[in-house]
Amino acid sequence: MRWLSWMLAAAVCATQAAVAAPPVATLERSHWPERIDSPVLFDVASRAHILLFARSLLASESQDEAQLTARLGLRQINLLAINDLRQRLWQRLWANFDLAQQSCEQDASFCYAIDSESELRTQAADLGIDPESFYAGFAVPGQVFSEAYLNELLRLAAVSPQTTSEVQLLSEHEFDGNGFADRTFLLSFDGGPGPVDGATDALTGYLRAQDLSATFFVPGQTLQARAEKTSVAQLQALYAGQCVATLGWQYVSHGQWDKWQDSVLRSIALLQADLPDSYVPWFRPPYGQRRADSGGFFAGAGLKVALWNIDSMDDDSRLTAQQAGERTLSLMLLWRKGIVVFHDTLAKAQTAVPWLMRETAQTDIAWQACADVR
Question: What is the pLDDT of residues 184-205, one digit of tens each?
Fold first, then answer.
């Protein structure tokens, strides 16, 4: 619910203005001219995405505060937070490009003599895709996607610290997947369980059939309601082979709520009692919003805050299931590792997830077993 998160941010911060939900970054994968059906071709597409995003990031640095404020559709921005985010993005982009260029001897597309972050900046400034190139059809759509996605990230940084989000870790007890090994991803779902025989049931069944696991983040209230309609035993069968963590007792922002600690503790007590074999000690803050000083509480409760760096945006009504899947794949190519988030109460994930698995089946990426993440 990223669009809702941003609208909530605007409501919380009286100095911000948001007339409508901002555009969502989408990209039809048909603009990329070849199937990504090998590790080498994954790297080719990864290099292209990194370079285009780096060009967008570099261009944004030439804008002053007034220009950035207008660009993001806000009345006021936190420029220090934006600059901090940019610095971290450059570090990740360089690290990822360096990994992606290891296969340049096998396919030299989008390969350049880049040996440092500063050289990546230089190449991004000089980047051009020839109109006669095999990849010419990707140039404009790829750049549009990069611009829109960068705006999403900058907007989240701009409204901090009043409204926290997934773009910044606040303590050592938080993680977002950027520390995973290259080509390693964790699949996660928010919001369930849904109604009996609904989307959650279909997804857990699909994952077991594919010998895959995911982490399902659930509100305690929703979990309790499902158990009362069925039984705890049926709930345990639903999540067999999967991991279950908490979103708190209710799916509401835990950034300003005075009962946020009780919400977390009450929900983990329920999970430990009803789903001891599936429970993992993680809390995911709804909308990414949590208190900046909450690190001590989570440490004392033995919890980690599990964020994400690849948002499918499947909960945005403007995106189809296909678009959510395509967006996810594009971000996987850009970040090369991380935590992917879908919403298991929505039918879109039932289409997008199998599509994503088919598209990446021959790329040598690893879907992390949820129980192995520490």
Answer: 999 999 999 999 999 999 999 9
Structure tokens, 53: 């995003």
Same domain assignment for residues 145 and 197: no
Enclosing domain of residue 204: 174-372
8 Å CB contact between 16 and 330:
no
| CA distance linking residue 216 with residue 203, whole number of Å | 10
Q: Quote the pLDDT of residue 9.
A: 46
C-alpha dist (Å) from residue 194 to 31, 189, 235, 346 = 35, 12, 11, 8
Query: Is residue 179 located within the same domain as residue 215?
Result: yes
Distances (CA, A) of 336 to 38, 179, 186: 14, 11, 12
Query: Nearest Cα to 203, choosing from 315, 332, 345, 322?
Result: 345
How many domains does one find in the chain?
A: 2
* Boundary of a domain, candidates 158, 186, 221: 158
On average, the pLDDT of the chain sits at 94
Amino acid present at 56? S
Residues of the chain with pLDDT below 70 are: 1-20
If phi over 0 gives left and psi between -120 and 50 gives alpha, with beta otherwise, what is residue 338?
left
CA distance linking residue 103 with residue 25, whole number of Å? 28
3-state secondary structure of 367: strand
pLDDT at 19: 52
